[in-house]
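Section 3.1 - Work completed
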Amino acid sequence: MTFNIRRLLSRVRRAVDDYRMIEEGDRIAVGVSGGKDSLALLIALAELRRFYPKSFEVVAITVDMGFEGGDFSSLEEFYKTLGVPFKIVKTNLAEIIFDIRKEPNPCSLCARMRRGILHDTAREFSCNKLALGHHYDDVLETFMMNLCNEGRLGTFSPVTYLDRKDITVIRPFVLTKESEIIGFANHHTLPIIKSLCPEDKVTDREYYKGLLADLEARREGLRHRMFTAIVKADLSGYGVEDKPKPKKKKNTEERKTQSENGDE
């Protein structure tokens, strides 16, 4: 299935409008890992800024984990073609997590450390918002992980204000399915950077991704009904009917939902 930029933008525009993600004068940092989701999100926001009624700016931030053989030169060229300011932050996170600390659960620590770097770098760019590439399927997978692993109902929020960093995290892809992003990526030449992480595709999230795919195959429309239930219950701020303008709030939920991470 091909998926052109207009269809991608329609999903993003609806999410941005429904959840009031963008305001006049916003400067938005996009966390770009080099995967399809974050690259597609950067393209969508770079295009949206051209015609959205509220003027905003976009910058790109990439965290180089320090894996041997990592090469981000293609991303630098890509950012320039989009006319987007960028910074690639070089780190030794891979060595710290896998060689020094030998973490038994590396994903949780890695996500926290990468988030901290993204938040700090976004503030260096004078950004008041950080956009992440979590999509519709990520919403459902995180819901399942929280339900089955922690015994609670919830997922990551479409908009979250982090009071300690004074930055708002937005997720413009929450209404965009992964299959749609894959279709867009297949139809366009994106400088996708293959993940060098040894935990790639073997995480708990992958298990729930497979579980949901199996359930969907047995009960067609299951994902849609799950998402509809989340919206109707207004879980994690997904209700949109007569929704008031969001106020700044403490990031209690963000701290609790550590399983939300990974923008692939």
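Second construct:
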Amino acid sequence: MRVLLTNDDGIHAPGLRALEEAVWQLGWQPVVVAPAHEQSQCGHRVTTHQPLKVESHDANRHAVHGTPADCVRLALFALDVQPDLVLSGINAGGNMGQDLVISGTVAAAREAAYHGVRSLSLSHYLIRDLHVDWSRASSWIAELLRETLAQEQPPRTYWNINLPHLPPGTDSLPPRIRCQPAHSPLNVAYTPGEHGYAYSASYASRPRDPGSDVEACFSGNIAVSLLHV
């Protein structure tokens, strides 16, 4: 299995390294085409009016001075990666509900799905002051990939998976909950300051719509959603 890996946290992000390790655990061949620098919350922006610089570290690792969606397009149409599967993540932070249109991580998976390539976006909800165990996340993702890819998947769809942030010592794979994206909007709040208004809403206090990805993930489960392009 030839697998394209990308993200929106940048090519040096620990979540991307954890995802690469999960792919190696499964015996698959990873090819990394990821942003050279962080592109969080860039949505599905693509670059069409200026050249895209690509720094090739080796034959299977490329840093793109562009967005996650740019990375997928370049991999498919310029770098001749020809992947069987596209994985985007593991994002440092949840991507649920309204995040789906904001997230560069999700946009990369969506871009792949538009072109008929099977894809998943993978994110890790974060709780402030709680250590992130990326090694544990890697093991979880390897098991989740085996489980998820064995399921039937209609054309023009892609998976969005969010891991919960659990305390150290919780190593067994949490329950997987099939759910829909939350409909309630994110909290919006700003604090005025000398240089303008700073966003100050709390992600953790967002509404937990019943049956939604937010409710599932915030309750300590793995939120699994099948999304349509």
